[in-house]
Amino acid sequence: MNPLDALRELCRALPETTERLSHGEPTWFVRGKKTFVMYADHHHDDRLGFWCAAPAGVQEALVAAAPERFFRPPYVGHRGWLGVYLDVDDVDWEEIAEIVVDAYRQIAPESLVERLPARPFEPDPAEAGDGRGSPDPGPA
User: Fold this and answer.
1) Could you tell me if 37 and 51 are in contact, meaning their C-beta atoms sit under 8 angstroms apart?
2) In Å, how far from its chain's centre is CA 32?
3) d(CA 5, CA 2)
4) pLDDT for 8-50, tens place per residue?
5) In this structure, what is the dihedral angle of CA atoms 72, 75, 80, 83, given to the nearest 10 degrees?
6) Prediction pTM value
7) 63: Cβ contacts below 8 Å, ≥ 6 apart
8) Which domains, ranges and CATH numbers included, belong to the chain?
9) Among 31, 50, 56, 107, which is disulfide-ready with 36 (CB 3.0 to 4.6 Å)?
10) What is the CB neighbour count within 10 angstroms for residue 74?
11) Cβ count within 10 A of residue 57
């Protein structure tokens, strides 16, 4: 599975999420109105990644700890949004799933957040062993 398909699977699994193009990129919305994740296929640089809403302080902490994996995206970075590179070796899809759910929690109304299970992307035991959980992005 390529990175866009893997990200799409994560976003679409969340309650009342829709996808449409915004600024030329696949973007996911809660109830068709509020953006929580935007794909960035070399959108403003030569990197593949996505931008997403993030809890207060998370952008700064992750960018400081791992600038090779995280960045402050243009236009929305000043609001605390997080940029995540998908063109790195060994993308941790379990971590990406947590980041996507956190983005959703920042934007979705409480009534939708309450519908999330404790672990929205529990790895399928039948697929255990790849060390990445679900979704399996396949070969890079």
Assistant:
1) yes
2) 17
3) 5
4) 999 999 999 999 999 899 999 999 999 999 999 986 778 999 9
5) -40
6) 0.83
7) 70, 71, 72, 82
8) 3-120 (3.90.1150.30)
9) 107
10) 14
11) 9
Q: Which residues of 14-33 are buried (b: 16+ CB within 10 A; e: fewer)?
A: beebeeeeeeeebbbbbeee
Q: Which residues of 35-50 are buried (b: 16+ CB within 10 A; e: fewer)?
A: bbbbbbeebeeeebbb
Token pair listed for 139: 């070969």
Contact yes or no for 59/77 (Cβ under 8 A): yes
Whose tokens are 């994740």? That residue is 37
DSSP code string of 75-107:
TTGGGT-EEEESSSSS--HHHHHHHHHHHHHHH
Single-letter amino acid, residue 97 = A
Q: What is the pLDDT of residue 43?
A: 67
For residue 138, CA distances in Å to 2, 5, 98, 117 come to 7, 11, 19, 26
